[in-house]
Design a protein that fits this description.
4 copies of one chain form a homotetramer.
Chain A: E1 5-6, E2 11-15, E3 22-28, H1 38-48, E4 65-67, E5 71-72, E6 75-76, E7 81-86, E8 101-102, H2 108-115, H3 131-141, E9 149-157, E10 160-161, H4 184-199, E11 206-213, H5 227-236, E12 241-246, H6 249-252, H7 257-260, E13 278-279, E14 282-283, E15 288-294, E16 303-308, E17 313-317, H8 327-352
Antiparallel strand pairs in A: 1-2, 2-3, 3-7, 4-7, 5-6, 8-16, 9-10, 9-11, 11-15, 12-15, 13-14, 16-17
Helix pairs in contact in A: 1-3, 1-8, 3-8, 5-8
Pfam families (chains A, B, C, D): Chorismate_synt (PF01264)
Family (chains A, B, C, D): Belongs to the chorismate synthase family.
InterPro entries (chains A, B, C, D): Chorismate_synth, Chorismate_synth_AroC_sf, Chorismate_synthase_CS
Chain lengths: 355, 355, 355, 355
Amino acid sequence: MSGNTFGKIFTLTTFGESHGEALGGIIDGCPSGITLDFNAIHRELQRRKPGQSAIVTQRKEEDEVQFLSGIYKGITTGTPIGFIVKNNGQKSDDYSEYETIFRPSHADYVYQQKYGVRDYRGGGRSSARETVSRVVAGAIAKQIIPNISITAFVSSVGPIFINKPYQDLDFSKIETNNVRCPDLETASKMEEKIKEIRKQGDTIGGTITCVIQNVPIGLGEPVFDKLQALLAQAMLSINAVKGFEYGSGFCGAQMKGSEHNDLYNHNGTTKTNLSGGIQGGISNGMDIYFRVAFKPVATLMQEQDYLTQDGKIITQKGKGRHDPCVVPRAVPIVEAMAALVIADLYLQQKAKSKY
Amino acid sequence: MSGNTFGKIFTLTTFGESHGEALGGIIDGCPSGITLDFNAIHRELQRRKPGQSAIVTQRKEEDEVQFLSGIYKGITTGTPIGFIVKNNGQKSDDYSEYETIFRPSHADYVYQQKYGVRDYRGGGRSSARETVSRVVAGAIAKQIIPNISITAFVSSVGPIFINKPYQDLDFSKIETNNVRCPDLETASKMEEKIKEIRKQGDTIGGTITCVIQNVPIGLGEPVFDKLQALLAQAMLSINAVKGFEYGSGFCGAQMKGSEHNDLYNHNGTTKTNLSGGIQGGISNGMDIYFRVAFKPVATLMQEQDYLTQDGKIITQKGKGRHDPCVVPRAVPIVEAMAALVIADLYLQQKAKSKY
Amino acid sequence: MSGNTFGKIFTLTTFGESHGEALGGIIDGCPSGITLDFNAIHRELQRRKPGQSAIVTQRKEEDEVQFLSGIYKGITTGTPIGFIVKNNGQKSDDYSEYETIFRPSHADYVYQQKYGVRDYRGGGRSSARETVSRVVAGAIAKQIIPNISITAFVSSVGPIFINKPYQDLDFSKIETNNVRCPDLETASKMEEKIKEIRKQGDTIGGTITCVIQNVPIGLGEPVFDKLQALLAQAMLSINAVKGFEYGSGFCGAQMKGSEHNDLYNHNGTTKTNLSGGIQGGISNGMDIYFRVAFKPVATLMQEQDYLTQDGKIITQKGKGRHDPCVVPRAVPIVEAMAALVIADLYLQQKAKSKY
Amino acid sequence: MSGNTFGKIFTLTTFGESHGEALGGIIDGCPSGITLDFNAIHRELQRRKPGQSAIVTQRKEEDEVQFLSGIYKGITTGTPIGFIVKNNGQKSDDYSEYETIFRPSHADYVYQQKYGVRDYRGGGRSSARETVSRVVAGAIAKQIIPNISITAFVSSVGPIFINKPYQDLDFSKIETNNVRCPDLETASKMEEKIKEIRKQGDTIGGTITCVIQNVPIGLGEPVFDKLQALLAQAMLSINAVKGFEYGSGFCGAQMKGSEHNDLYNHNGTTKTNLSGGIQGGISNGMDIYFRVAFKPVATLMQEQDYLTQDGKIITQKGKGRHDPCVVPRAVPIVEAMAALVIADLYLQQKAKSKY
């Protein structure tokens, strides 16, 4: 199987370049008989959309999904769900000069080396615009897992962190601010930071934390498709992601076993949850939580050195409309990828559970 | 495809429980005509083997691999390589009491919940002994990628870190000490720490850093099989791993774009390498480096609360011979999994490269 | 992987129902740098199109393919090729009565039983219209295998057979007649037969023979992905196909070894080719040839008994415009599926061949 | 996924050469909690074993399977089932001369061309001995599908056919004779034929018919994993198979729609079953039946021309102990492969069925 498919039973295959006619995908393996909530799908697309607030790119993308198959009278039929999202707002001429130059820390150079040819407009296939298809599929994936709750939020922007465990946060506040941070005081500091960075023509990284609640016990397929292994693959497949940790994460590496072990309650739940809801690669019914690191956006509104195809270095300033901080817009993408992992493992477990 | 297979062209499927008759696997898709270096395979198994030094478990495992097919007169034939590693040193009676109790932060409970039945001896399938098959396959994978160099080492034990970039380390020192740390001063502090922890009947976590050199440009299959995404899956599939970061990693999330971007040299290499050798999911020819976090071993030689199958909490002390710190022995496992990822992507790139 | 994907490296995933907005697919794993011959793709679609002659359905389908990604300035970029074919000519109201009745020897009943819900218009997903996506992908697959020649033709209609080995036929005559039979005398008998059958409001089956020439030695992946095994899967996945045989086929089962063995020439070719170009699952460089059996179309322009959803039997006559014999139109579909098999195995062999 | 794995959820990966130390495989995805009937597994191996009667090869193979994992106290644990079958009775020196010569209609030549190196002893990987692993896995697969009945028998040997529909046969007679033909009169003619052929130092082909009863409605995953498409792949992956047909098969290609359509009864069953229990790629609850053609064994006890590695033709007589007719021994292999197909589709349907 080639690299544009994710999942084994509930699968998503995507296609599309930033400035092609459309992006889209095929969801195969979606169970039949599900009355889809199209508003929920639309809502997720709106959350991912550029141009939502003063701190993100002002580029306009319509991002209306068009379903072409697999759904009849609003109900999934069990056949593959084909969908497209048209690229209306793109201006190709903005990018023509990128045919022969390679931007630093972009994929331009490696695509040229790997494929010998590339659609250089707006990053082509390597553009984060590709994630629009993941958001569509994730929004459907969420609807096949009963009672699941998947919530992501911005937990840091540059040096500014939320200093509370997720249990002390009010998730209903996430969508009330531009950075999608549930701690409002921190949120406003983050927003200030992003504005300051943008004034400098610079960009900044950040982290997203994701919490998955009401996960049935038993999801995950050891030894290679452990739940955390698939979450890690899913997250690292998102543009600009540099790291993943779950439960105690990198902090756990500094701890002693006597501090780290989660002791049981009588009913099989645990008193603490440094394990992050997963043991031996299998969900244990506790909250799953993980953190994802995003590097700063590579396109700067400052002068930088670029490489040309004939081996010269030229100095240039980034063009177009870009996010100074991509992290707020990545929140629905993290949720979508988590949903794809859980949905697929949920169906696998259904297949093999005792009968 | 079920969860015990890794890879798409060069694939490893493993089987085996800690206390069954044997563990093993099948490597399918290995190119023909490769004269195998069996000493190299043996050496890797020795590195993973328990009982190598005073700071690791004194449990004895022979760990001799027996190849059953796919190799004729020392040369790979292109047919599947079946192999087994017998479980000689196991004493099953040590574990009989674990039939009805669940150890904290072990996989006992979730296996029972997921499968309804389990081989409880020594962790069964969830035992780290399963990684012996990965080491065999990794040692073969390394031999199919020309010039590749994959080097892992212990970069922290609990609070003790190497405070140097990997470029300043002498990799030839890694195997000269029990903790597999190339910085000898730090190594001896780590060793002290582990001894101290063992005296307490406790355990401790740590991190491993891995550096892959001489990687051809162009490996990685966007968008879901990005090189870093598969490395992340591979690492998080190893027992006790809690986190993965590559290049700038979580630190990158605190940086500005103007600090983080890697500027080009005329020949396409970069002056810095915060990208960690990967752009847009594809190797760019620079060193790939990443870091993996391991939690402390869950079995303690102290009293702890265990859950029984009928919902009681009992107090007990761990039995058997266990590592106070698993990280030194995990070094060859990290290398093996990295080799599996690179070998598979190398063959995929061969398939699709221009002809 | 769910059931709408074919192939392992060069993969096709399809979606679409007969009367939905569009059908289409994603080709993933196509090598980059191929200058596509779009006329060749168009030509194949025209061959599959209904309404081409007096003996096939007069239903009109435009069948224009629209490529959405993976191709830039006419050259493949190595990224997934998304494409759609719109359903313009469909009239949904023709089919509304099929919501609650099941036609004999159609998929209506099993789709209802399997999925609980179905798009009943025109057969929905089970319609042969789905093969339009295969023809698009097959036309691209042919272009990645150097020098390959894949030629299918109608070798029988009902009781009327070509009584010559394929070596005695002039393939350039295939497209000169409505039944796509290279033997013109037989072709006109077949055409008469089909006209006669149509007058009766009946339908008739037939066979297609396919010959693949200039296949490199070494394609096929034993033991389960033998070349003939994948061809068999590919052919049996086409609507209405009931059988597959290659080389000596079912006749071979009546022969003695001394009659059946193909003796070698000095250069490794064989004097005879009862093996059909494949030994042990691997192409041997001789012509590959196979035969595919199609049942008669199930929709009759006569009265027949139908089952209703509430268990009644009603008598009714088929509606719409249907082929009395589907075999001539299936010729390009057989070729397309053969091309998909060969292209995928060709890339697999490239991956694993010695370097 | 490489070519030695079959299935998507219930998967079998096999390894092993004819004269290596052992053959074996890994069954992954087998549900947990199944109390295995080991006698049933043993019985199937006995049926496949050489040397069972006067009409098959007198070569001795012990064919004892040894399970290494995935089963604890006789119950499947849901973890991969590793198994081996040792090659005890092989004498390698018998085959040493085959290093540099290629037997006609054997896989020797193509293996040499594809892989550049081969284990030439007894056919190596291309030997039918490989099917021993399939029989083990098939015997387990049968045990996970409730009530299923899979029965294969020899329906023709050379020109001698059973001239009755399968419904008129007494399946309990299959194992009462050496050719595994339920019609005893035909059986004795077949046996005579095989003895006559053996006296000539020749071999002969034949066909096997397989009937699958009590299949749940709804198995099969259109469009590429249609039930008949996977059965076809499975059958054509067996050594010496040249053709597959199901239901009306090649005869159906000569029929009219008015003769071929299966009319419904009120309860959804059909009055006739030319469809062979499958519509649109999905089981409809009626009997599934299909027929498989086997070519005559290529090794003859007569003089024949062989090709040498340096391009000479030499005359030689086959050596070793070989079946004059392989068809009786292939009966359990056909059943095993059918069981693998059904088991995998059964689990896939469980995954996606409504909840």
